[in-house]
# Entry
Amino acid sequence: MRTTGDDETFALGRAVGEVLAPGDFLGLEGPMGAGKTRLIQGICEGLGVDPRDVTSPTYALVNTYSGRLAVYHLDLYRVVDPEEVESTGVLDVAGDGVALVEWIDRAREVLPPGGVHVLIQDEGPELRDIRFEAPEGAPLLGAVSNFAASA
# Structure
């Protein structure tokens, strides 16, 4: 899926957020500035969270938001040891909400079976290639397909 600009990346995120369910886990990978946080802001809006409240938790490791579901937003950019993530306990409590993890490539082993890997590649000014690797039949794949068809 390609998006052209922050607004379209945000809208794709919103479509995904509208179909997420308790226990969903999305691990996002991509270079600095590729749009990971913007996609997450859209996902959060789709979950009923004000996107203005969503910031990258680079220094806090995890931010929690309340919406239709609890949202656990992690940023692993500063993580040196994957055990740091496990020690937060967020992977244990995410069952009541959704986990959105930026920089999953820093601790890929925390991506649970059935988790969704989101790869964002910066293709130039305002152009992003966003790929969702999810279990077959995952509702978010339908949301992405519907979004692509309407774009």
Observations:
- The chain is about 30% helix and 25% strand.
- Strands lie at 2-4, 25-29, 62-66, 70-75, 97-102, 116-122, 127-133.
- The mean pLDDT is 87.
- Residues 12 and 147 are 7 Å apart (CA to CA).
